[in-house]
Every structure is written in structure tokens, then in C-alpha cells.
Amino acid sequence: MKNYLLAALLACSVPVLGEEPQLPAGLQDSLARMEDPSIQAVAPFRIFDNLSYVGIEWVAAYVLETSAGLIVIDSLYGKWVDHLIDGVRELGLNPADIRYVLVTHGHFDHAGGAAILQQRYGAKVVMTAEDWKLSARPAVNRRFAFPQPVQDIVAQDGDVIELGDTRITLLKTPGHTPGVLSFRYSVIDGSDTYQAITLGGVGLNFSGVARTEAYITSYERLIRQQNGITVSLPNHAFMADVFERGLALRKRLVGDSHPFVDGDSYRESLRSFLAAAREKLIAEKASR
To bridge 200 with a disulfide, which of 104, 152, 189, 281 should be the other Cys (CB 3.0-4.6 Å)? Predict the structure, then answer.
């Protein structure tokens, strides 16, 4: 992982009071890169027949097409919200058709554009109760401040968002924040349909034994309940080599497998995230 992305990920965990970790040296350079269009302005690209990438270099966002409108997964922040909207248009879609904004968690980089999409297009915003509260707390730094959407849907574990021919199952996977949501849904490649997941909070950049234990419980559950998931579309692209797979997709020949369909890598990533969390827990308990 690029050093500036490490800094950016640490930064993305400090939009609220009481959540400020130790940040690495060179943070200002890292924050500058987060706002640099020459680095961040990724062209939108289609991944599956019904799903496309509309995020930036360091934060993912996706648009899911249904028979009754569009669902956006995460909303970016600041000037990048217009980048997301422009990306929807470049894909030949109409942003006015956005019906839901599913927010993985309440940090600024994922929730920061939700209010804009809500206000412009009447989209319903979905978060857990814990992360509605998290997103509403005052920012520790104005860089991390963002407009708060009107509270629409308070998600519970196991809820289903249904729009036209599409169902998304909401999984509450706390740890990275108290109310992280992960999303399970179907993606289509021609005549083939696959089960995909967007993991809502992988980073271990938080403190506290209780939170780490919650994270471990969440990832133990995800390992138990893989249930045929073969596509990982995380909320930070580097976590599943989204851009590298996107390049392979552009070079795909007739008869080649879809480069995003890789259940083995998804399962290995879960084991890796869990192992790192267990190491973190040991260190936290030892430092008490």
C-alpha cells in the first residue's frame, strides 16, 4: 500500500471528536494528495453489467443499476461528490434516478456527499443508528467537516433494501466504527450472476479493546457466512486490487474468466484482516 494511502486511511478515521489516532510524518503531503485531481480523478468504469466504479483513487464509490433506479454505495466528500455525479452521467446514467445512498460508515470520506445526493435527487440515505450519530458529531478538523443528511433509514443487521429487481442485504459489521455496514448483492456478467460484497470497514486505525473485539467478532462472522461470495468490492479500492482488476477486465478476451470473480482472494483477505485484528488485541491487552 502506498504510504500516502496509509496516512489517508488514518485521516479518514478522525472526522469526529474522540477518534484522533497518532498520524504518521508527512501527513500534510498525504492530505494534499487526497485533494489532487491529477491523482484522484479516476475515470468511471463498468465492472459488471449492473455495477460500475464512480469513486476516486483512494476512496471507492459504486453505482448499482436496477430496474427501478440507481443505488449508490458510499458518497465521497467535498469536491469529489461532483466527480461521482459526473461519473454517473459519463456511464450514460441519470443522477436524478439515484434512489438510495448506502453509507458503509459515518467517516467523512464515505458519508460526506450523502446530504448533497439527498438534497439534489431525493435519494434515501441508509446508515446504522451508531453511525448516524457518529457522522453528526463536530469535526476535529474543518477538513473533515461535511453537511449532515436528514436521517432517512436507520439500518438494522439483516435488513434488505429492495429496488426493482435488486435486493441488497445489510450486514452490521462493527469495529472500524461502532456501526459499520457491509452490503451483499448480486452482480451480473452476461448470463452469469455472482454474489458480491462491499466490506464497510476494514481499517484497524482505531483504539480500544472493546472495539477490537467487536471487529474480531464481525470478521469471524463474515468467515462463517461466506455463502458463495466470490466478488469483493471494498470501499477502498486498494483492498481488493480494484484498479488492477479493472485493467485486466479491459484486456479480457472472449472466454476469459471475469477478473473480479475471485472467491479465494476474498476468503484469504478475511483471514488476513482477522489475523491482524487478533494481533492488535494482544498488543492492546498487553499495554493495559
Answer: 104
